[in-house]
Amino acid sequence: MSFLRAARAALAGLNCPPRIPVALVVVAVFVLAGLSLSCGSSSHGTSGHNHNAYVTLPARGSVLLLHIDGATGAITLGAETPQVENTSPTGIALLPSKKFLYAINSSSHADSISIFNVASDGTLALSGTPSPAGNGPNDAVIDPSGKYLLVTNNFGNNVSVYSIDPSSGALSEVAGSPFPANSSPAEILITPSGKFVYVTNPGIGMVTAFSFSNGVLTQLPTSPVPSGAGAIGVAVDGSERFLYVANPSASNPPPFSSTTGNISGFNIDPSTGALGTMTGSPFTATNGNGPRAVTVDPSGRFVYATTTGSSFSVWCFAISPTNGQLVAATNSPFSLTAGVSFALIDPSGNYLYIGSQDANGIAGYTFDPSTGAPTAITGSPFSTVAAPGKMVLSE
User: Fold this and answer.
1) Hey, where are the domains in the chain?
2) DSSP 158-185
């Protein structure tokens, strides 16, 4: 095993982006407010139906099925796929039809993509032999049409695009793939329309932007754009007007100089996808360090960014609807169990889930629709047996 491979395998359980200098990684991501706290409903809408979710377990070489109670947001464990030696699955993507799920494996022997058939009860069955992947695959996303899988390759400095066979789930790399994506691409996001793709480059503190059509990525002439030191987590609002990026290692001017890390805000040109830095960006908290995960709530009202531990660990901002600027919520940052593997909000806007390495599980919260203030779901954090990698919801 090469030194880089060994280092990457060792860091996988911590969900640290590979090939990023330690000096740039303080404590990190990511997927979401002035406000006054008030009592009121703790969810945005009516209770949702029960559904499933999936989380990768890098240290165990497996994918874990989760059952989510739509009325409470509580998580119970389902079946775990057989553990595969010498793999460290991180990225995960679920086809919109829910027929197939893809786990992105970083391996000391051969990088690959595992394809799973999804049964009606949500259980997974491996479909054939894992497909070859690029050099150091990391994160993945499926376009809204369900025709293409996009995977960042951290060691290859590019993004691979695969067409998906709708009947078997098999992958075929498209012509021209992999597409250059600057230094050590990490997180990847595709807009709801499927027109634009954004990739973070932590080592250079940049965001690389692409247009996307018929499986082809075309880097925008204005790309990459500066974000901040360690730029990693990335999220977009539902109207795809605003993009937010977590910069865990960025320094801040007074009066926030005691806080390390911030959130960059960008306006998205609706016709080209080009990014323009928002007035007032970057945005930060009064306390806390190293936000790595970031997410936007489906209503487009709040952004949450998360750090490790439970001290000043959940940053909450309100989104100004006219320009996307962020305003810190009253009492934010909140000292609650958090983590940096991921931050996700379910499509109904009822529940916030945060991947926590410290707790080897997932912290779950409801949040006030008026103030954004989070409240822990009964039973949270929910154990995942081992430190979680990435999570995807089946809604």
Assistant:
1) 3-394
2) EEEEEEE-TTT--EEEPTTPSEE-SSS-
CB 364 within 8 A of CB 380: yes
Q: What pLDDT score was predicted for residue 395? A: 74
pTM of the full structure? 0.88
User: Which residues have C-beta within 8 Å of that of residue 156, sequence separation ≥ 6?
Assistant: 134, 135, 136, 178
| Sign of the dihedral defined by the CA atoms of residues 38, 41, 45, 51, in that order | positive
119: DSSP letter: P
Max CA distance (Å), the chain: 57
The token pair at 62 is 């497996």
Q: State in words which class domain 3-394 has.
A: mainly beta
**Which runs of E-coded beta strand occur in 167-321?**
171-173, 179-180, 188-190, 196-201, 206-213, 216-219, 225-226, 234-236, 242-247, 262-268, 275-277, 293-296, 302-306, 314-319
Alpha-helical regions (H) of the chain = 3-12
Phi, psi (deg, nearest 5) at residue 227: -120, -70
Q: Are strands 112-118 and 100-107 parallel, antiparallel or unpaired?
A: antiparallel
Mind listing the pLDDT tens digit for each residue in 70-84? 999 999 999 999 988
- Dihedral through CA 343, CA 347, CA 350, CA 354, nearest 10? -10
